[in-house]
Structures are given as structure tokens and as C-alpha cells.
Amino acid sequence: MSLDYHCGIATLIFMKYLLSGIQLGKIFLWQKILQQRKSLPIATVEKRLLEEVRKNDTLIIVGETGSGKTTQLPQFLYNGGFCRDGGLIGITQPRRVAAVTVAKRVAEECGSQVGQRVGYAIRFEDVTSNMTKIKYMTDGLLLREALLDPYLSRYAVIIIDEAHERTVHTDVLLGLLKRVQKTRSQYANKQSNVDLMKANFNTLIKREENGPGVGNLQQCQRRNSNPLKLIIMSASLDARGFSEFFDNAKAVHVQGRQFPVDIYYTFQPQTDCVDAALLTIFQIHLEEGPGDILVFLTGQEEIESVERLVRNRIRQLPEGSQNLSTFPIFSSLPSEKQLKVFAPAPPGFRKVILATNIAETSVTIPGIKYVIDPGLVKVRSYSSESGIDSLITVETSKSQAHQRSGRAGREGPGKCFRLYQESLFDKLPDSTVPEIKRLDLSNVILQLKALGIDDIFGFDFMEKPDEKAVIRSLETLFLLGALTDEAKLSNPVGQQMARLPLDPMDSRAILLASQFNCLKEMLIAVAMLSVESIFYAPPDKLEQSRAAMRCFSSPEGDHLTLINVYCTADEFFEKSLASNSKEKAEKNLRNWCKENFINSRSLKHARDIHSQILDNVTRMGLRVTSCGDDMLQFRRCLAASFFLNAALKQPDGIYRVYRSGQMAQIHPSSVLFRSKPECIIFKELVQTTQSYVRNVTRIDPLWLSELAPQYFGVQE
Ligand code: CDP
Ligand code: MG
């Protein structure tokens, strides 16, 4: 029945196109999409799902990846009338790429432009309008929206997608939404007087009096006459935890479609995953039948290096075998590039998709028959002992390995090549530890405080974070000036920090920079450090790329070096724009990047982020002044904000982090790798086989007690 309904729309649109007499190609594309939609496992249970959502305010939906949950359910709800009262359907994703690509796909399925009925919002990018009814967004962004609209009153339905990923934002949202939903139901159940609202939203109302930009009560009263429908979607088959957390909420299963996948292991352990992956790609290409290859890699750097190596090796193949093309997909890839992985390979070509763990469950790429899984994933990890957040590469869990191999069997039987020994698989942990157990919580605690939730230990988390980690994060926020002695949000510093969509230390640096007269420089530094790898060094042109990097490098460190790159690029762009169209100037900039061994993708992303943060700080009324050539001011400002990441050189040339006592070396990619100054601050700590600090700047150790007496003044 319900499918006929879609066909009805199809006919209408078909007529529309026919009447206008154009775009026959589009019609075929649309029909193809319609066919695909009809064949998704979820299509057969549309009616039942709608009934369940009507009956239950909270519903857990569990279904295998590729069954159609993310793209179809919001459309079912829209067609089922859930937006009739003017409310929105919001769907959260742990990853930006997923929010963007899925929104674009669903807009296409609806026959409209993204930003109209279907839109998306991610940090630094909002593609929605007042016509938008289905809004995809990151879980972090919805959490941020709660700061402005604590009752999430714009939403009729909120879908927390990919809940099995258990990101820290998803976990906090689950607790928050439980509260919001209860209050909205009570309100809807006629006890709609302001006293009740006040009792329930005691803390939130307090925020309204004090805090910035919180939605007002009348607005909430007007909009919140309906209870909030909450749907939790997960690809992991165990729904029990979610159901229990939501007072035994109903859970339904959507059947997936899975063909058999043969699993292969290596005989020997592999020390060089990139090399092993490369060999396997070509082995499949030359020896196996048709079908695309999906390779799981740890990050942008690794993906780009494999991409270059594959391209080089293709050239060495006989002409008839060169029909292989690579497609990268990772979070910080610009969205127009992300979408390319979904397009079919050029005729006669085999696609090799080089992906981070984003392709595990978040996005489904059609055509995959072969999966290469080195069994590694890069994760953030926080030690509450040391207070240091680091990026580490770890082995996947068994459930991740299953998800990965499953990607080969969506459309037919497939093969998965695990680049490790079978005996190792048995030793992998069953599932991944939720982020809330292993991440620095200062950012979310700041946001909870900004929401008026002061009692962090009393907050209803699905899984409680470690007490030590919470205390450590509270301490960090206090030392950064965001919290008062009583652990309340400070005014104005804490409140302003909560408004910036950045890590607390970055936010602190931005706020301080306006006092140090170097906000212009700090905005650039923060934007450049928000993206991965600005420089690239192809193995066959190492010398030239190093020489290019030297032109920008500053003896004071990586922050200043990155500012040099940004400013030189900006100057080049502006000059080029003076005598060219915007498109031409952008093209010229890309060429300039190539000549200078700068990653143009990353630079473009950094420029976009820069303009967004600039917008934020201007709206906050901060004055954007520059310290000109006096970069001492800038480095002092870094010391005043990143003092918790300060490290001192030891006689053996290794650095000791003040706060934790941890020993680390300067990463070889840093401009300070050789000069090794006495005292440094760093942006992050990376752990591979060794501990490295990355993005490092030289400071004077005497500045620490002068500029951060709250921390260094008391230590004798
Ligand atoms: O959420 P779930 O994993 O259950 O499935 P989905 O993301 O809704 O994907 C359903 C189907 O839509 C997949 O089989 C993809 O082939 C297709 N899809 C696509 O072609 N392009 C996208 N950008 C997203 C999905
Ligand atoms: Mg999905």
C-alpha cells in the first residue's frame, strides 16, 4: 500500500518533467532511485514502523547496515504526517560526512534541492531553510542547539542514529532527551501552567535569566503542545541497553540483507599495513572477478598516501589492466568530493574506495564486493591520570570487524581480506568502549553546565563516566577560567567559551587573543589546526616538498608556520581575485597549492572554518585586531591558554609534559623537530609506537608562572 503512495508521487513528478519537456535523463535517474528504494528491506515494514512510532513515544529500531534506516525512516515519518503541526524531524549522525551525504541523497530521493525540504547542519555549515522539514545533523550540533532551545521545541521527532557508535555526544543527548521528553509530555498532558514548567525546568529557567541566547518561555509554551517522539536507531543487534535506559522502551528489528562473505586471514603478522593493503588491492584487481574494493584505513594521511601509491603503481601495469580508480572518503573531505564515492565507476573500471571507519556503518556505498580490513582504527583516548587527550591507533573490536566484512555482502556474495592472523581475531575485544569512558569530557561538561545542569555526577548517563575523568575535566575547566570556585559557569569567560563551537583550550585562546591584540592570528591558527595535514610530501618528491615547506617555516614553531601558509595563500588569492573571476581565482589557488606542496583540500576547509569562527566572534562583539609582526604577543597568548599542554626539554632531548609527567618527543612533521627548544606548548599528543607531541610552538618557561599563575604559581 505504502509503496503505491510513492509510485503516486513518482508519477506526478514524472508528469512534471514530461510537461516541461526536459531532463529525460533525470527521470530515468529518479525511476532508478525509486526502484532502489522499493527494494530496500525497510520498505516492506513502513506501515508497521509508522504504527509503532504512533503508539510509542520512544522506539528503538535495530537493523543491519544498508537496510534503509537512515535514508527511509525520516521520509516515512514525513509522509505519515509527523510534521503536520509544523515540527521538524531531526536525525543525528555521529559523523559529518554521513550527515551531508545522506541529506543530499534523501533530497534527491524527494526530488528537491538539499536545503529545501531536506537539509543538513554540521559545525561550520548550515544548509537548511524555513522550508526544511527533515534535518540531518551531527549529534554534537543538536547538543549545541539545546543551548539555544533547551526544550528542542522545533522538533516533533528526534532520531538518534548510529547509537551503537556510542559517541560522547550521543550518550549525553540520550540523557538530555530523556529529560526533555518527560517535561514535554507532562506539559502536553494538560498540566500546562507556568508553575509546572518552572518546577521541571528549574535549572534551565535559571539559565534563561543569566545565560546568553536561551529560548524564551513563551516561545516554548507556544510550540511545545506536542510530546517529543524519540527514535533510537542502531546497527548493533543488542537493543537491550537502550531499551532499559528508556524505561523498557519497545524495540523493533528490521531485517537486513546479507549474502555470504568469505573471510581470509594472513599467514604472517603484517608490520606495514599500507604495504599489505596495497598488495591486496592489486592482487584482487588482477586475480578476482568484477566488483569494487573497500579498504579501511586510519585517517586522511594514510588514505592520501595509499591513493598516491595506487596511482603510481597503476601506471606500471600493462595497459589493459590500468582500469582501476581510487575514491577517498573521510570526515574532513569537502562534501562535493565525498559524494563521488557513491557514483558508479567509469565504464569498465573497478573502484577502490579508501575510507576511514566511517564506511563501517555510517555510509553505505553500493557496488562493494571486496573488503580489505587491516584491523586498525584511529581513536581519541584520554587519560584521566595524565589529563592528556591523545590520538592513538588501536585494533578494532570483533563487532567492528564484523561490520566491516559485512560491507562486502550487501549485493551478492563477497570476500573480506583481514590483514592479520586468525589467532589475533579471537583476542580482539567484543565491542568498542563507549567514548564517554575514554574521552576528555571538558567540552561536554562545559556544555552541560551551560545548559544549567550543574550536578554532573547526578546526570542520567546511560553509562556513567569515570569519576576521576569528570574531576579532571572540571579541574581543566576551572584552570581555564570557565568555572568558578563552586564549579559554576563563570561569567563572562565560561559563558563565552560555551558559545564557541571549539575545544575549551581553543576557545580560551580566542578569548584571550582579543586581549593580547592577536585575535586575527589566533583565528587563523585555530582554523588551520582544525584540519588534518596542510602539507603533503609525496615520497617521490620529498626534497622538493621539504624545500617548499622551509619557505613558510618559522623558527618559533608550527603555529606561526601555519599562519604564514594561510596568509601567503590569502594574499595570493586576493591578488588573483582582483583580475579574475572567483572560480578562476580558486583554480589559481589550487595550482599555487600544488606548486607549494600544500594540501588544497585541507586549506580550503581551513578557510571555510576561519570565516565561520570569525563570524562567531564578531557576533560576540570581540574586536579582531592583529599583532602585526610582533609574534611574541601571539606566543604569549598561546602560553596563557595552552599552559596545560606545556612541556620542558629533558637532558636527553625528550620532553616532559608538566601536567602529567608524561614523556614525549616532538613529531617529525614539526618545524621544531630538529631545533628542540627548551620549553614548548603543543596542540595534541599522538601515540603510535612512541609518544609524540604535534603542532608545537616555542615559549619562554618564565611566561608560565606569569601568565598562568592559577596553575604554575602554586607549585613549588
Ligand atoms: O541506515 P542504513 O544503514 O540502514 O541504510 P541507508 O543509509 O538508509 O542506506 C540505504 C541505501 O541507500 C544503501 O543501500 C545505499 O546504497 C543507498 N544510498 C546511496 O545510494 N547514497 C547515499 N548517499 C546514501 C545511501
Ligand atoms: Mg544508517
TrEMBL record:
<dbReference type="InterPro" id="IPR001650">
    <property type="entry name" value="Helicase_C-like"/>
</dbReference>
<dbReference type="Pfam" id="PF00271">
    <property type="entry name" value="Helicase_C"/>
</dbReference>
<dbReference type="GO" id="GO:0005730">
    <property type="term" value="C:nucleolus"/>
</dbReference>
<dbReference type="InterPro" id="IPR048333">
    <property type="entry name" value="HA2_WH"/>
</dbReference>
<dbReference type="InterPro" id="IPR027417">
    <property type="entry name" value="P-loop_NTPase"/>
</dbReference>
<dbReference type="InterPro" id="IPR007502">
    <property type="entry name" value="Helicase-assoc_dom"/>
</dbReference>
<dbReference type="GO" id="GO:0016787">
    <property type="term" value="F:hydrolase activity"/>
</dbReference>
<dbReference type="GO" id="GO:0003724">
    <property type="term" value="F:RNA helicase activity"/>
</dbReference>
<dbReference type="InterPro" id="IPR011709">
    <property type="entry name" value="DEAD-box_helicase_OB_fold"/>
</dbReference>
<dbReference type="Pfam" id="PF00270">
    <property type="entry name" value="DEAD"/>
</dbReference>
<feature type="domain" description="Helicase C-terminal">
    <location>
        <begin position="278"/>
        <end position="452"/>
    </location>
</feature>
<dbReference type="InterPro" id="IPR011545">
    <property type="entry name" value="DEAD/DEAH_box_helicase_dom"/>
</dbReference>
<dbReference type="Pfam" id="PF21010">
    <property type="entry name" value="HA2_C"/>
</dbReference>
<dbReference type="InterPro" id="IPR002464">
    <property type="entry name" value="DNA/RNA_helicase_DEAH_CS"/>
</dbReference>
<dbReference type="GO" id="GO:0045943">
    <property type="term" value="P:positive regulation of transcription by RNA polymerase I"/>
</dbReference>
<keyword id="KW-0547">Nucleotide-binding</keyword>
<dbReference type="GO" id="GO:0005524">
    <property type="term" value="F:ATP binding"/>
</dbReference>
<keyword id="KW-0067">ATP-binding</keyword>
<dbReference type="InterPro" id="IPR014001">
    <property type="entry name" value="Helicase_ATP-bd"/>
</dbReference>
<dbReference type="Pfam" id="PF04408">
    <property type="entry name" value="WHD_HA2"/>
</dbReference>
<feature type="domain" description="Helicase ATP-binding">
    <location>
        <begin position="50"/>
        <end position="255"/>
    </location>
</feature>
<dbReference type="Pfam" id="PF07717">
    <property type="entry name" value="OB_NTP_bind"/>
</dbReference>
<keyword id="KW-0378">Hydrolase</keyword>
<dbReference type="GO" id="GO:0003725">
    <property type="term" value="F:double-stranded RNA binding"/>
</dbReference>
<protein>
    <recommendedName>
        <fullName>RNA helicase</fullName>
        <ecNumber>3.6.4.13</ecNumber>
    </recommendedName>
</protein>
<keyword id="KW-0347">Helicase</keyword>
